[in-house]
Design goal:
The chain is of the alpha/beta class. The chain contains three helices and six strands, in the order αββαββββα. 17% of the residues are buried. This is DUF4136 domain-containing protein.
Length: 179
Amino acid sequence: MKHLLVSLCVLLLAACAKTPDWDYDKSVTFSNYKSFAWIPNASLTKNTNNYQISPLMEQRVQNAVNDNLAGLGLAKSDEKNADLLVNYHAAVDNKVEVDTFSTSYSARWDYWGMGYQHHTQTTNYEVGTLVIDIIDRKTNQLIWRGAKEGRLKKNQTPEQRTATINSTVAAILSNFPPQ
């Protein structure tokens, strides 16, 4: 019984894990694409003032995307000769987590009544979303989009930030090209 309860808890936690979200044009033959380039003026830092989205983070994301697409057999090219153009966006939202739990149950005999005591705790945190767009250069149409969100962690080392970006980009691009 104990093992069954542990197994159910593990499955529940796995179901709650943040998985990437993808969308793509089903009419596109992705095997025809052999090269990619970044869209001119692609920028994560545009339209945001969050300190974690910086030129350093932008370079980490670009490196991770370049490495992942090269691992898929796509060659990096200049914009005029590329089959695909890559763009990306980032957003940071503030979220509030509210936890309410019962701290005790009490019954009093010296006066009428019994009941629960409740404790409520709120936590503010930031959630970041990274979106990667793949565009057909000839038609200028979006053909694939992947996104992943996750809770932003503060006070990370540059190595930890790089590892987080590498795993996030790999998760987003795990369905590119779509099977």
